[in-house]
């Protein structure tokens, strides 16, 4: 798009154009009047919709920053990606990305961060809770009953740190945010004509837990029926830990000085049977 023409047609308006650019090399010699650029590469990929093993890196961010040569870069932050339509059926390998990506933003300090997205249920990267009035395009099959507003709880300290130019988030209250898929990746969903999504071979069957603590504590996770509890020490601040997924209930507990300060069992069990494939994570929060 020729942004020079747009600006010339509206001389009394202050227009700053940061369009989505697919190839960052285009920016080095672009003469289209853009002032900066936005990247849609919010998930691990070699470009386009190619699926590669995770984790997310900053390789695309660095290409944009290099070619922008000081002009504003709007970096994407997204928690997840899973879609299951007959026209597109894949998962990007995000896993610990909800915290990893914000840690990258605090290091890179881009001019602007765009969260991708508020309510794109079709690709599972929404950060809203359940929205019963959402016009269903079929994504209700994997989004209904899978709230993601816990990501907003997790991200609030990161956003505050980014705005303040800080290198790390600051935590003022003890909380836990956890997320996990509700079936192991090898589970066969017999009633799904689309088959499993592309990319699942790169996924791990794990439960992710982000502790948000004012002081160090002990985190205990019991994943599945009959599973032995697993306890790890976690430091103050935000720390992300993962645990082997087990079929059945998911229980979480945080103790300090031998006293439980947070605890609870998720509303969603992990199941070893299904009708339709769902690689969208369930996100939960524990607060004191």
Describe this structure in words.
This protein is an alpha+beta fold and 288 residues long. The chain has one domain (3-287). Helix content is 17%, strand content 25%. The protein has five helices and 13 strands. The strands form four sheets. Strands 10-7-6-13 form a four-stranded antiparallel β-sheet, with helices on one face. The longest helix has 15 residues, at 150-164. The radius of gyration is 21 Å and the shape is globular. It starts with a helix and ends with a strand. 36% of the residues are buried. The mean pLDDT is 96. Keywords: Glycosidase, Hydrolase. This is Putative glycoside hydrolase family 71 protein. One of its GO terms (molecular function) is glucan endo-1,3-alpha-glucosidase activity. InterPro entries: Glyco_hydro_71. Pfam families: Glyco_hydro_71 (PF03659).
Topology overview:
Blueprint lengths: L2 H7 L27 E2 L20 H10 L4 E5 L4 E3 L4 E3 L5 H12 L3 E4 L24 H4 L6 H15 L10 E6 L25 E8 L3 E7 L6 E5 L2 E8 L5 E7 L2 E7 L16 E6 L1
Parallel strand pairs: 1-2, 2-5
Antiparallel strand pairs: 3-4, 6-7, 6-13, 7-10, 8-9, 8-11, 11-12
Helix pairs in contact: 3-5
Strand order of the largest sheet: 10-7-6-13
Outline the low-pLDDT stretches: none
> How far is the first residue's CA from the last residue's CA?
51 Å
Please, how many domains?
1
> Got a strand count?
13
Which structural class do you get from the secondary structure elements? alpha+beta
């Amino acid at each position: 798009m020729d942004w020079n023409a747009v600006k010339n047609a509206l001389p009394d308006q202050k227009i700053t154009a940061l369009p989505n650019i697919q190839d960052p090399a285009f920016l080095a010699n672009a003469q289209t009047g853009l002032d900066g650029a936005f990247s849609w590469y919010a998930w691990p990929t070699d470009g386009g919709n190619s699926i590669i093993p995770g984790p997310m890196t900053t390789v695309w961010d660095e290409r944009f920053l290099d070619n922008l040569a000081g002009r504003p870069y709007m970096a994407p932050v997204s928690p997840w990606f899973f879609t299951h339509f007959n026209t597109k059926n894949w998962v990007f390998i995000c896993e610990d990305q909800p915290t990893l990506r914000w840690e990258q933003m605090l290091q890179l300090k881009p001019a602007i961060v765009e969260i991708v997205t508020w309510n794109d249920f079709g690709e599972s990267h929404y950060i809203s809770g359940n929205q019963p009035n959402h016009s269903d395009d079929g994504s209700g099959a994997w989004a209904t009953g899978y709230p993601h507003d816990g990501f907003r709880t997790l991200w609030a300290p990161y956003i505050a740190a980014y705005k303040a130019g800080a290198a790390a988030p600051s935590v003022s209250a003890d909380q836990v945010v956890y997320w996990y898929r509700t079936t192991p990746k090898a589970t066969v969903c017999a009633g799904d004509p689309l088959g499993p999504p592309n990319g699942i071979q790169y996924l791990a069957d794990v439960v992710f837990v982000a502790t948000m603590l004012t002081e160090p504590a002990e985190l205990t996770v019991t994943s599945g029926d009959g599973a032995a509890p697993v306890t790890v020490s976690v430091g103050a601040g935000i720390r992300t830990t993962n645990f082997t997924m087990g079929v059945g209930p998911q229980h979480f507990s945080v103790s300090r000085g031998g006293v439980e300060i947070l605890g609870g069992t998720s509303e969603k069990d992990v199941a070893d049977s299904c009708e339709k494939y769902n690689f969208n994570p369930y996100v939960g929060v524990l607060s004191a």
